[in-house]
Structures are given as structure tokens and as C-alpha cells.
């Protein structure tokens, strides 16, 4: 068990029967009364981000997670197959376990699967990925006085706003945490 004073970014805890990773925390001390701690948490199973406030000194159960380095192989229906790069075992995750992370997966991509008590629960994507644009409207020079943007669909089905100069077939780099266009690759 750890208390609110021992919390830090990246730590994993169990709360209300769910596994969470701490994205951010803030200690708040008001004029009168006790101190509180505000936590920004990511649910490891669903990927949902929540903010919760706790009294200072409250205790949490710390969770130790394992990471397995894998390579994405293929999709079969709603199941996604990964190969452990050390043991060559097949690890299968469902669409529900992956959530929006499935929109960033490309063949032979290397990433980490987060395991808890021997069971895969989610994936940890690289910070940026390169995807090919499969559809976007053509951008016409002089459309806007300032920089404009348009929607583009990538090979994985992800729709992202891109600058007007991006065309079908271009490779673009996308930030996986925000889902935003970064640059042409």
C-alpha cells in the first residue's frame, strides 16, 4: 500500500477494482481544512482518462505491471495478433482491449504489451507513428489566406486533420497521444 505522498507520474495503482496509471497529480492545500490530492488517471483496460480527488494520507494498492516487447502481425476479425519478440509466442488482444490504439497499428510495428498477472490488458504505442494517406480531398493553392486544414483518412482508418498540401499516397507522422498530424514523413 502506498499513500498520497508517495504518488508520482507513471505509477500504476488499483482503484475501485480497476487498474490505473497516474498521468498527473497535484497536491492542494487550502487555507483551512486538510490537504487534498488531485489525480489524472488513465484506465489501463479501457484507455479512459478520469480526474479524481482524494484526501491527503489516503492509501492505494500499488500494481506492478510487466511489459512484453512484441511485433504486430495481423488482424483476424476483432482479434489482433502480436508476436513476442523473445519467445515467438502469439499474443491475442481484442478490439475492446486495444480501443483507439488499433487505429495506429501497421504491419510489423514493434511496441509493448502491458501485462498484469500474466494476462495482456493493453498496448503501449510509440509516441509517433508513420501512416499512409489513402483518401483526402485535393488541396487547391490559394484556398485560404492563412494555413488551412482538411480531413485525411489513413491506411488504418484513422481520420486526421492535415495541411492542404498533403495528398493521397503521402506518408504522414501522427502523434499517438493526441491523434494530431505532426509532419510529412
Account of the 3D structure:
This is Elongation factor P. Keywords: Cytoplasm, Elongation factor, Protein biosynthesis. The protein has a 6-stranded antiparallel beta sheet, with no helix packed on it. Strands 9-8-7-10-11 form a 5-stranded antiparallel beta sheet. Strands 14-13-12-15-16 form a 5-stranded antiparallel beta sheet, with no helix packed on it. It has one helix at residues 95-98, and strands at 2-3, 12-15, 18-28, 36-43, 49-55, 59-62, 66-76, 79-84, 90-94, 110-116, 119-124, 128-136, 149-154, 159-163, 171-175, 180-184. A hairpin with a 2-residue loop joins β2 (12-15) and β3 (18-28). The protein contains 1 helix and 16 strands. The chain has 3 domains: 2-62, Roll (SH3 type barrels), CATH 2.30.30.30; 66-124, Nucleic acid-binding proteins (OB fold (Dihydrolipoamide Acetyltransferase, E2P), Beta Barrel); 128-184, Nucleic acid-binding proteins (OB fold (Dihydrolipoamide Acetyltransferase, E2P)). With 185 residues, it is mainly β. It starts with a strand and ends with a strand. The longest helix is centred in the middle third of the chain and has 4 residues, at 95-98. The protein is flat, with a radius of gyration of 20 Å.
Task: Briefly summarize what is shown.
This protein has 185 residues and is mostly beta strands.
Topology:
Layout: E1 2-3, E2 12-15, E3 18-28, E4 36-43, E5 49-55, E6 59-62, E7 66-76, E8 79-84, E9 90-94, H1 95-98, E10 110-116, E11 119-124, E12 128-136, E13 149-154, E14 159-163, E15 171-175, E16 180-184
Antiparallel strand pairs: 1-6, 2-3, 2-6, 3-4, 4-5, 7-8, 7-10, 8-9, 10-11, 12-13, 12-15, 13-14, 15-16
Domain Elongation factor P C-terminal: 129-184
Subcellular location: Cytoplasm
Domain Translation elongation factor P/YeiP central: 67-121
Amino acid at each position: 500500500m502506498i499513500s498520497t505522498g508517495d504518488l508520482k507520474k507513471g505509477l500504476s495503482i488499483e482503484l475501485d477494482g480497476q487498474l490505473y496509471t497516474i498521468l498527473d497529480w497535484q497536491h492542494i492545500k487550502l487555507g483551512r481544512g486538510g490537504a487534498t490530492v488531485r489525480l489524472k488517471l488513465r484506465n489501463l483496460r479501457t484507455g479512459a482518462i478520469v480526474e479524481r480527488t482524494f484526501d491527503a494520507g489516503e492509501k492505494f494498492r500499488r500494481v506492478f505491471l510487466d511489459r512484453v516487447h512484441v511485433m504486430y502481425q495481423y488482424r483476424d476479425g476483432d482479434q489482433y495478433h502480436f508476436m513476442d519478440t523473445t519467445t515467438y509466442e502469439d499474443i491475442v488482444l481484442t478490439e475492446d482491449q486495444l480501443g483507439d490504439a488499433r487505429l495506429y497499428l501497421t504491419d510489423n510495428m514493434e511496441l509493448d504489451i502491458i501485462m498484469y498477472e500474466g494476462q495482456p490488458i493493453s498496448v503501449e504505442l510509440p509516441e509517433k507513428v508513420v501512416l499512409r494517406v489513402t483518401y483526402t480531398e485535393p488541396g487547391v493553392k490559394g484556398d485560404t489566406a492563412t494555413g488551412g486544414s482538411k480531413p485525411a483518412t489513413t491506411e488504418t482508418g484513422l481520420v486526421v486533420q492535415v495541411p492542404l498540401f498533403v495528398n493521397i499516397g503521402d506518408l504522414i507522422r501522427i502523434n499517438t497521444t493526441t491523434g494530431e498530424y505532426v509532419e510529412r514523413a
